[in-house]
Amino acid sequence: MPRRFIAIEGLIGVGKTSLCRLLSEEWGARLVLEPWEHNPFLSAFYEDRDRYAFPAQMFYLASRSAQQLSLRQADLFEELIIADYLFQKDRLFAEETLVGAEMELYDRFARMLCTSAPRPDFVLFLDAPTEVIMSRITKRGISSEQVIQAEYLNSLRQRYYALWDRYSDAPVYILDTSTIDYTSTTDDSGKQYMMELIQGWLNGKPIHGAPRPYKAPSGAAQMSLFTK
Fold first, then answer.
1. Is residue 138 part of a domain?
2. What pTM was estimated for this model as a whole?
3. Across the strands, what pairs with 173?
4. Average pLDDT for residues 110-139, to the nearest whole number?
5. Does any domain span residue 134?
6. pLDDT > 90 in the chain, percent
7. SS (H, E, C) the chain
8. Which residues, other chains included, contact 222 with Cβ-Cβ below 8 Å and sequence gap of 6+?
């Protein structure tokens, strides 16, 4: 069976890593998680973006590049790989936080490193209203995230949709997760729905009501599910 690769994306706190873990556990897929919790500059960045944006971003660039290279060298017998990020998102965050000479230096390194990134079979972008995401961030209680502001999430969402407008390496599916609970320990309906949804895309037979591939607007302003 050919190896398949799915990238699951979304704003901070939307639930992408939880979904990746679920799919890995249920299907025995190889799990690739971005190294956010190992970034020694992350907490400082949320407190002082201007001072710590560059080292935080360069740590991510180097770590993500190394992970992508390992995917290219992965065991050929691995049938499915699930990642909770798309490598191209790294520049999206850089655009949000870096300017001037720091952005230019970032781009120099990124051009050297991004050639190792494999293409996914498809990208699933999870979205939800900003207030829902803020509530989830508060609920999961990661201290470094508690200073995240709604304006920061809204700006990132706009950059994500600008990325989807120009992204052509694989189909992108966008899903509103505000009413889907796949983390419940008492109700498996949300888990089952997500697995059937993703399996349908993998098989080339989308289930009824599944989102269609995202297409960039033609001659109109870029819009998202939750424009702010």
1. yes
2. 0.85
3. 124
4. 89
5. yes
6. 56
7. CCCEEEEEEECCCCCHHHHHHHHHHHHCCEEECCCHHHCCCHHHHHHCHHHHHHHHHHHHHHHHHHHHHHHHCCCCCCCEEEECCCCCHHHHHHHHHCCHHHHHHHHHHHHHHHHHCCCCCEEEEEECCHHHHHHHHHHHCCHHHCCCCHHHHHHHHHHHHHHHHHCCCCCEEEEECCCCCCCCCCCCHHHHHHHHHHHHHHHCCCCCCCCCCCCCCCCCCCCCCCCC
8. 158, 161, 162, 165, 216
Q: Does residue 216 lie in a domain region?
A: no
The answer to whether position 227 is within a domain reads: no
Residue 41 has pLDDT above 70, yes or no: yes
pLDDT band for position 47 (50/70/90)? confident
Please indicate whether residue 84 is annotated as part of the active site: yes
The enclosing domain of 13 has a CATH number of 3.40.50.300
Of the candidates 79, 81, 63, the residue with the CA atom closest to the CA atom of residue 71? 81
Banded model confidence at residue 46, pLDDT cuts 50, 70, 90:
confident
User: Confidence class of residue 77 from pLDDT cuts 50, 70 and 90?
Assistant: low
Domain that holds residue 194: 4-203
Helix pair 89-97, 150-166: axis angle to 10 deg? 130
Q: Which of 48, 84, 121, 181 is catalytic?
A: 84
Count of structural domains, the chain:
1
Cα distances from 72 to residues 5, 180, 207, in angstroms, run: 11, 33, 30
The predicted model gives 68-73 an average pLDDT of 76
